[in-house]
Amino acid sequence: MDFNFSKAQLMLKKTVADFSENVVKPRAEEIDRSGKFPKDLFLEMTKMGLTGIGTEEKYGGSGGSDIEKIIAVEEIAKYCGSTAATLSIHTIFASVIGKFGTEEQKQKYLPVVCSGGELGAFALTEPNAGSDAGSARTTAIFDEKTQEYVLNGTKCFITGGGLAKYVLVFALTSPELKTKGLSCILVERGTPGFSIGKIEDKMGLHGSETAELIFDNCRVPKDNLIGPLGKGFKIAMTALDGARIGIAAQAVGIAAGALDESVKYTKERVQFGRPISSLQGLQWYLAEMATKVECARWMTYRAASLKVSGMPYTKEAAIAKFNASKVAVEVTDKALQIHGGYGYMRDYPLERMYRDAKITEIYEGTSEIHKVVIAREVLK
Ligand code: CAA
């Protein structure tokens, strides 16, 4: 068992930490206030190779694995939860194509999203199919005459859905078979019949776009089927197992960022004639926060290392995400409390971190769904 990073991983951590502190941090407040997706930061991450982590270089990726991915996501989340979410969720697209796509599909799509500056999106959720993903009703019926899939339905809460060049849409190719009739179909931006609906106005994560996607007799060629016909539910579940490790890393990063702010603030803030870091009550808060962050971080790395070594990791990914998201909410809450009135003001980053932390308990599977997944694995 080795708890150490390799030299290359340490270098990546330092490079992303510098980028996060010098480039992302100064932008985080403005991104939150404007609610605009920072395309320039996405392009910077592309230039640095971060959007291609986990994909082989021959497909335009930058190599590396889920370990490198979570190193990058955590460092960025310390200063901007939105930008970290964009990176983490964007990489789901490449992970699905990399695992389930044909050689031709890999060559066609991966370079565009890994190093071409375009976003990829993952569209599973529907207005009436959230936690119960298997009740998705969007259809993709095959037209024998034209050899095309015809999509009809609406997807909602899709991260980057309105900006993405390619969207992986989970739709019923055989509606009577329910989850066994669900398939994964790639839809390209601009395809007739595919339109962007409501862009959500959220509590937090303002720099990460969340869109409704509408399919109205949207026709795509049969070559856009990703993976085997009828295996869409399994593809989505496999993708989510991996993606949840990314959200755990995002949650760890938000919590670690709030802890760093709290350490700095308690050393600088003088009350009762001394820095408040000398008060045992606050030291205990900091100790508890540090313990939670450290535990959440190692659970996240444990899940990633199981995935990288090809071992089963569904339970560990769910535990990591369930725990890290809880830690992110608890730690940002405590950090805001430590900052007192200042923490509540928008001049300080704490209230943003607190708002950004909350979604980690909801998206890519709620905490309650994670408990379902963990319990099923434990009871197996
Ligand atoms: N890996 C591979 N296959 C899996 C799997 C996994 N982790 N989990 C289930 N499956 C397979 C099962 O083996 C089963 O296959 P068979 O029919 O061949 O036996 C099939 O999938 C159906 O499984 P279940 O009976 O367990 O399915 P279920 O309907 O009970 O649902 C669930 C299981 C875990 C609750 C699932 O619905 C779920 O994860 N729900 C949450 C959905 C979610 O996380 N949504 C987030 C969307 S993405 C997002 O939030 C943000 C974004 O922008 C990306």
What does this structure look like?
- This is Acyl-CoA dehydrogenase.
- Its cofactor is FAD.
- The chain is of the alpha+beta class and 380 residues long.
- The chain has 3 domains: 7-119, Butyryl-Coa Dehydrogenase, subunit A, domain 1 (Orthogonal Bundle); 121-230, Butyryl-CoA Dehydrogenase, subunit A, domain 2 (Beta Barrel), CATH 2.40.110; 233-378, Butyryl-CoA Dehydrogenase, subunit A, domain 3 (Up-down Bundle), CATH 1.20.140.10.
- It contains 11 helices and 10 strands.
- The chain has helices at 7-34, 39-47, 66-77, 81-100, 103-114, 232-268, 280-308, 314-338, 340-344, 350-358, 367-379, and strands spanning 120-123, 139-143, 148-159, 166-172, 182-188, 194-199, 210-221, 225-226, 270-271, 274-275.
- The strands form 3 sheets. A 4-stranded mixed beta sheet has the order 1-4-5-8. A 4-stranded antiparallel beta sheet has the order 2-3-7-6, covered by helices on one side.
- The longest helix has 37 residues, at 232-268.
- It is globular, with a radius of gyration of 21 Å.
- The protein starts with 6 loop residues before the first helix and ends with a helix.
- Acetoacetyl-coenzyme A binds at residues 89, 122, 124-125, 131-134, 158-159, 179, 233-234, 237-238, 240-241, 314, 363-365, 369, 372-373.
